[in-house]
Every structure is written in C-alpha cells, then in structure tokens.
Amino acid sequence: MPPPPKNQNKRDFPGRRWLSISLRSLHLVGVVLLGVALLAGGDRQAAGSLVLATGVTIYGMDLWCNPKHFGELAGVFILLKLLLVGAMLAFPAAAIPLFWGLVVGSSLVSHAPGHFRHIRIFN
C-alpha cells in the first residue's frame, strides 16, 4: 500500500504561500534591525516587537495548517525562540548572547535534515 500523501491532515487557504513569504521577509527585516540595535545602539523594543509579532503570526499560521508541527522538534524550537526573544527584551543585559545563540541555533535546526527536524517530542 502506498504511503499517504505528505499534505494529508494539513489545512490551507488561498494566498497562504504569499502571506507566509511576506511575513518571513518582515521577520528577517526585524532580525536584522534587532542585530543592528544590539550592536550599534538602536531601538531594541521596536525591532524585537517586530520579530515577536511576525514570529508569533508565522507560528500560529504554521500550527493552524499543520497542528502536528507543535510536537516536532522544529515546532518546539520555534516556541523556544519566541520565548528567548521575549527574554532579550525583558533582560537587556543578556540580549547579545541570546541573539547570537538564537542565530546559531536557528541555522542549525532549520538546515538540519528533515528526519531530525521532524522528530516527535510530544504526541
């Protein structure tokens, strides 16, 4: 018997792809602005708020489309990243090490093989 299609049990809506691309682009703008703010003394709150707002929206949309994402390593890691961005805003003295840890951790998890990113942590 052939395996079920990959998109089985996933929801979608018209325009989701372009909305996701737009939000991810804004999210990257926020990450760059946050890095500049941390390294050159800009507005951390505005940049961090942009990162949080776009990150929460992307995460919410991803969970709506694929609720199983929450139980996977990649989904849990996204929640951790959002909490750490919040910690950066709440504890400015820890912001720079947290920022670099997030950059490195994000790169490692997002570029890891699919079988690693999609390990089920929670059922």
Describe the model.
The structure is a single chain. The chain is an all-alpha fold. The protein has one domain (17-117). The chain contains five helices and no strands. The protein has helices spanning 16-40, 44-65, 73-90, 95-110, 114-117. Helix 1 (16-40) packs antiparallel against helix 2 (44-65), helix 2 runs antiparallel to helix 3 (73-90) and helix 3 packs antiparallel against helix 4. 11% of the residues are buried. The mean pLDDT is 91.
Brief rundown of the structure:
With 123 residues, this protein is mainly alpha-helical.
The percentage helix is 55-70%
Q: How large is the share of residues in beta strands?
A: under 5%
| First-residue to last-residue Cα separation | 25 Å
Rg calculated over all Cα atoms: 16 Å
Unreliable residue runs: none
Given helix and strand content, the structural type is mainly alpha
Helix/strand layout:
Blueprint: H1 16-40, H2 44-65, H3 73-90, H4 95-110, H5 114-117
Helix pairs in contact: 1-2, 2-3, 3-4
Question: What keyword list fits this structure?
Answer:
single chain, 123 residues, mainly alpha, 5 helices
